[in-house]
Amino acid sequence: MSSDKFKDLFNRQTLTGIFPPDRADQFFDALFGDASEGAYDISLVFKEHRAKDNTLHFELHLTQRPGRCLACNLTHGLPTVFSRHPVINIKGVVAEIGKLLGDPASCKEWRLGGTNSVSSALHTVPLIINLA
Q1: What are residue 17's DSSP bridge partners?
Q2: 28-44 confidence digits (pLDDT tens)
């Protein structure tokens, strides 16, 4: 599949279906007992397909909520938390991506990279999926 086909397949509408906007509220409700305590919203963004190592690259975008602070100390440990948290459900996200590819087994391994601070209002967590 070409890079353009991946971009078409993993468009904003499709990714919102895989990772709905209210998932951040569910996460903060589970974490703090109150969704309004969350400092950021979470969305899934497709970045690229790398043919040389047959990987798909996505990012979880952590976008600061109005009146909140998106500090590095809030996000640096998130890859470990996100990889295990049942509300974030990265394993389920990867399974949904596999279904879109037509073969759930095509996503053989995944990993979350370290948090990147793009700006004071946006941090990202890379999601890399190795394809079979």
Answers
A1: none
A2: 999 999 998 899 999 99
- Taking the CB of residue 18, how many other CB atoms lie within 10 A of it? 18
Separation CA 113–CA 94 (nearest Å): 15
What lies within 8 Å, CB to CB, of 64 at 6+ separation is: 39, 40, 70, 120, 121, 122
Burial 38-60 (b: 16+ CB within 10 A, else e): bbbbbbbebbebeeeeebbbbbb
Is the confidence at residue 98, as pLDDT, over 90? yes
The reported pTM is 0.92
**Domain spans of the chain, in order of start:** 3-131
